[in-house]
Design a protein that fits this description.
Length: 242
């Protein structure tokens, strides 16, 4: 069986036997990779700490029939220690890698790897508020998967906005004339914030009010759950109200 190398970000790990782990990774070239890392739970393992969640590494694999085997690991970006030392940062990073894990279950898009790594690096460097980084990552990852929310024109009539009624199942904003009864209306600032997070306009996003951020968080969580058809469990550990 052939060997190969890929730059990866570690999504999650599971114990296997007495000393091994199964590592689930998102590869820059190969997409989702599941591989056995032998002996990494033994005292003195040289690669165990390089294969923790959120680590970015250059890994050589031996290709197997069901699971590949990790052969060599070189650290590219050591983000784990910084992230796990801060609980809000840790829960945010957990939600990001869980989202990536779910979105890449059935194939992958090349853009997911740099998007996730960029988000984790921004988180570890305190570049922006953790919740803004998370919501931007989720929106952009969903857009890469083909679920870009429409924020400018009514998704039903095509009428240009601004519109503030948002219908999750329709995929974006709708005009008041066609909004189903009970449709939530967002603050105009919230709609603008969602657009800023989608394109990475941090100058605008960083200046928004907490009220708009809280409203946007609820929309992002609901939008992600609708399209993934299951919840992001890690979001339950985040204080989404502040």
């Amino acid at each position: 069986m052939p060997s190969y190398r890929d730059e990866v970000v570690v999504l999650r790990t599971h114990k296997l036997g007495e000393a091994d782990r199964i590592i689930t990774m998102l590869g820059k070239s190969r997409g989702k990779i599941r591989a056995v890392a032998k002996g990494v739970r033994k005292t003195g393992s040289r690669i165990g700490s390089r294969l923790e969640p959120f680590m970015v590494a250059d890994v050589q694999f031996y290709e197997g029939r069901n699971l590949d085997t990790v052969q060599q690991v070189e650290t590219v970006a050591s983000l784990t220690s910084v992230i796990v030392a801060d609980y809000p940062m840790y829960t945010t990073a957990s939600a990001m890698v869980e989202t990536a894990d779910k979105l890449t279950d059935h194939g992958h898009t090349n853009g997911h790897f740099p998007l996730l790594v960029g988000g984790l690096k921004a988180l570890a460097s305190h570049a922006h508020d953790p919740s803004l980084i998370l919501d931007s990552y989720i929106l952009r990852a969903l857009a890469m998967a083909g679920w870009t929310p429409e924020l400018d024109a009514c998704v039903v009539t095509g009428d240009t906005g601004p519109h503030t009624a948002f219908v999750i199942s329709a995929g974006g904003v709708v005009s008041d004339a066609v909004a189903p009864p009970g449709t939530p209306h967002l603050r105009p600032e919230t709609v603008e914030l969602l657009g800023a997070l989608l394109v990475g306009n941090w100058t605008f996003a960083d200046a928004t009010t907490e009220v708009a951020r809280v409203e946007a968080r609820g929309i992002v969580a609901a939008y992600a759950q609708f399209h993934l058809e299951r919840s992001i469990r890690s979001l339950g550990h985040i204080d989404r109200m502040g």
